[in-house]
Specification:
By secondary structure, the chain is mainly beta. The chain is built from two helices and seven strands; from the N terminus they run ββαββββαβ.
């Protein structure tokens, strides 16, 4: 299992979508989701067909958080320039975790 970490603090358990099929599927078909999903490479995401709103973190290739947004189902958010990795979680998770733009994230196994 992997973990999403910021400043030495574990934020959440982490699933990694690193191949084409898992990136395309993302969180589609799920009714709820505990933890976070890291999609790499990804410049943006969509919530078409999603059953719940998402928190989305747009990150650089080094996992610097460029911006965060809460995205309702059936939307196509505009990513900031430089996005190479996207992290998704159920809406409200980023607030609980204290995840904000400007943070440096890391993945630990």
């Amino acid at each position: 299992m992997s973990w999403l970490v910021s400043e030495g603090r574990v934020l959440a358990s982490l699933e990694v979508a690193g191949n084409g099929r898992s990136r395309l599927r993302g969180l589609l078909g799920r009714d709820t989701f505990e933890g976070a999903l890291l999609i790499r490479p990804a410049r943006s995401v969509h919530t078409l067909g999603m059953r719940f709103p998402l928190d989305v973190a747009f990150c650089s290739s080094d996992l610097d958080v460029l911006a965060t947004r809460q995205v309702r189902p059936h939307r196509l958010p505009l990513p900031p320039r430089g996005t190479r990795v996207v992290i998704e979680a159920e809406a409200g998770a980023f607030e609980r975790w204290g995840l904000v733009a400007g943070q440096q994230l890391e993945v630990r196994s």
